[in-house]
Amino acid sequence: MRNVALSRPIVRAAFCAFLALLPLGTAWNLLALQYFPSHTIRIGPKLDGVTYDKPVILSWATVRDGSFQKAVTSRVTDAMAIRPLLIRVNNEIRYQLFGELTAPNVVRGVKGQLIERVYLNDYCSRTEGMGLKLAADILPKLRDIQNYYENRGGIFIYVVSPSKVAHLPEYFINSVPCPSTPEARKQLVPDYVGALRQGGIHVVDTASLIHSLKGTYPFDLFPQGGVHWNDVGGARAVLAIVEAINQQAGRELIPPFTFTYTLATPEKGADRELADLLNVFFPHLGYQTPQASFQPSVPCAESPARNLDVAMVGSSFGHLPARIMIEGNCLARFRFYYYLILGRFGGTPIHELQRNLVDSDLTPLRDAKVMILEENESFVDKAGYIDPLRALVRRF
Question: Which keywords label this protein (predicted)?
């Protein structure tokens, strides 16, 4: 009894000390976030997702409209050391008891399938003839870029990557109002690609390729808890890209590869990115995805492709092909420019080399012997990096 009695004051004292230290931890984080970001104090698992700080601007105008107060409140709240733990506790309760997703841009479809809302909105807003209109707008831009590289003896490939919603519509189209017609949804990519090819653009339609493989494997080519293609989908796409490059070169410029895979529960990465974005303690990961390994047809130490300057400009769908082309095709000098300026990736194993590129950092793109330009079918002619790339090559 005495031990129990003594424990209560100790617990109360510890709890009071914890509450007293919280403001000090918040004050430290406010300072550290600006000068020592790696030394901030966080209690609980790191939160997934990207947040952007609101600028704190002190002026009569910002005080009057409340934006200054909101920005200060947001900064102080984000600096709370216990914030990650509280968010995950709240999210877990809402997720497990009420089935509520706390990530506003994530939609849950049938059988636990997850998708980002932007892809679903695109798929459900497709109209008849949209592919031809988009192709007419982007065709002169692609022609300028393609002409630049071909006039210098290089190779240009334009890649259309697939959308998970377009690949597995049966899981999602009943989750939200979907006014587009089935014909409009199906015809956008074929119409778009057909018009570009007729206009002379070298297109690799990995979207239609992946959709045609539906049911070929004992698993879907998109993971349940992710929005991007899995290893097998990426491998099949890269094989098609390499074949197109070699056809243009008139020889085996890039040796192909073979691959094998095993099925496993996803531990990290793109195969569970949306499940992680929910920021709960126990995301539903009762599914398996293929983990592929790649066998180059020529040992990388002997492959002439290791000295080939290959560049890719593209969206988040470009990360996996970039890794595969470095590992499977021995492209040691491969560089992936994520949204052109957000980051440059390369190396073995692939990693981020530079972030937030400026104009001078894009100069090596002009000298690439092979240029791969990727856009996802959900955002063709909308990605935002086609015009800057065209402006870059037109300056020379």
Answer: Hydrolase, Transferase
Phi, psi values for residue 338, rounded to 5°: -75, 115
Count of C-beta atoms within a 10 Å radius of residue 58:
10
- Give the residue from 310, 300, 298 showing the smallest Cα distance to 255: 298
pLDDT digits (tens, 9 = 90+) for 175-211: 788 999 999 999 999 999 999 999 999 999 999 999 9
**Calpha distance 88→187 (Å, rounded):** 42
User: C-alpha distances in angstroms, 71 versus 62, 64, 84, 89, 105?
Assistant: 10, 13, 19, 25, 22
Q: Are 236 and 294 in contact (CB under 8 A)?
A: no
Helix (H, G, I), strand (E, B) or coil at 117: helix
For 226-249, letters b (16+ CB in 10 Å) and e give bbbbbbbbbbbbbbbbbebbbebe
Domain boundaries, the chain: 2-86, 112-394
- Give the relative orientation of helices 130-151 and 182-198 as an angle to the nearest 10 degrees: 30
334-345 per-residue burial string, b: 16 or more CB within 10 A, e: under 16: bbbbbbbbebbb
* 133 φ, ψ (degrees, to nearest 5): -65, -45
- Tokens for 71? 């920005």
Whether residue 284 contacts residue 314, with contact meaning beta carbons closer than 8 Å, is answered with no
Residue from 289, 263, 286, 285 nearest 276 by CA: 285
Length, in residues, of the chain: 396
Rounded (5°) CA angle 243-221-158: 35
Tokens for 319, please give them.
């990360």
Identify whether the C-beta of residue 305 lies closer than 8 Å to the C-beta of residue 329.
yes
| Eight-class DSSP state of 54 | P
Higher pLDDT, 71 or 163: 163
Compute φ and ψ for 173, nearest 5 degrees: -65, -15
CB neighbours of 182 closer than 8 A, spacing ≥ 6? Answer: none
Instruction: Give the β-pairing of 310-314 and 203-205.
Output: unpaired
